[in-house]
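Sanity check. The docking grid for FAM depends on where the pocket ends up, so I'm generating a full predicted complex first rather than guessing from homology. Inputs follow.
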Amino acid sequence: MKMIEAITEQLPAWRERVNRLRTQFGSLKVCDVTVEQIYGGIRGVQIQVSDISYVDPYEGIRLRGYTIPEVLEYLPKKPGSDFPLVGGLYYLLMTDRLPNEAEADEVEQEWASRSQIPEHVYQVIRQFPRDTHPMTLFSVAIMALQPSSQFASKYAEQMFTSEGLPKGDYWKYYLEDSMNLIAKLPGIASFIYNYKYRNEEIVSYSPELDWSANFARMIGKAEDLRYQDLCRLFFVIHSDHEGGNVSAHTSYLVSSALSDVYLSCAAGMNGLAGPLHGLANQECIRWVLQVREAFGGHVPGKEELTDHLRRQLQAGKLIPGYGHAVLRVTDPRFTVQYEFAKKYISNDPNIELIGRVFEVLPPILAENGKVKNPYPNVDAINGALQYHYGVKEFDFYTVLFGMSRILGLTAHIVWGRILGKPIERPKSLTTAMLEQLAEKS
Ligand code: FAM
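Predicted complex below; grid placement will be based on this.
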């Protein structure tokens, strides 16, 4: 694979950079930690390195240095589509280089050739009651693939042979496992969708189509080219958001114990399934529909909407899709999806309402200075777009997020092995120790 060559070429320089920092500047202090940060979710404590992506509070995410609009513009596209091939995005995340068409296509072809899902994975899913949350099914399906981990079997094998497995080569097996897992995600996610909401159909992967279009086709949208484009857009922009969010940090931590890609990604997906993380995206469309319902199905005018929003806030309610722990501007991932919506489905009442909320809510949220970011985040529009194209099962939306996020998680994990990151082990203190420190201060 070209991807392996591109990584191999860069290896010595990357390892040298990290080695230099560790040996020459190992004792350099990066930041202080306060008691509030220890009790407050380690917010803002700079304890990680993420070269895959970086979230700038005023600019939003950059994937390998490129902003969201740049990523959408520069990555190769399939003829007839304005939206990138996910294979190209993966090449960028993994290699730190923009791919040409052939390189993006090679990743797509690799996925097609690795897409066959073992029968027992379907059986595992079918064992669960149909009302099981799709994220639970997604996580167990990933775990069901774990016995095929090449890293796990190679690692176990070398324990008993003289040949050994050099530490510097671990990443190659992690990359193999990542490619094998990602190749199967459209099949797994679509089967969960079909099992829960459609006809229990298992649809095989079409090598003629890219990864995103395969997923769309597998849930019955073979003819809907616009939905296929939405999938490309969605899967690209949700792929990574630095290393500190719950799913990225969890999977990275688990992989630091040399747990393989399947174990690590399933752990990350269990974090993504939490209501304060990935599950938030199912709440936003529910809220949009509730607002319309409160106005008899109509989209309220600006004044009516302002009154309604004020009443909700006065009643202590959160407005889903607004605010962010890091961002201090409108999330560019909201912006590009809103542009898609305005271009293709501007007559959709949910999109109209989302546009009106975007006009009136930020100044209201900003009024008392409490909300640090009064602007929309990516979740403010995700669900409405899926809903428009007929994917109306809200609890499935986090699986779409998970499919995309595994692209980023695996890039972090593979690079952790490339750079030889050791097992993570932060130190704990007791409350009494902090109290003693406080008294001495
Ligand atoms: N509506 C009403 N109040 C809000 C608000 C919103 N959308 N966002 C923040 N606030 C309040 C917040 O509850 C807090 O009030 P208290 O001090 O009384 O607890 C205050 O403003 C300060 O919060 P913050 O510092 O601005 O935000 P946080 O960093 O604590 O939290 C969010 C960030 C995203 C969890 C928060 O803004 C929120 O709950 N938003 C709505 C839910 C949502 O959209 N979640 C999706 C997040 C998405 F980016 C993701 O991770 N998938």
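Relevant for the grid: The mean pLDDT is 96.
Also worth noting: Residues 277, 280, 313, 318-325, 370-373, 377, 379 surround FAM (CB under 6 Å).
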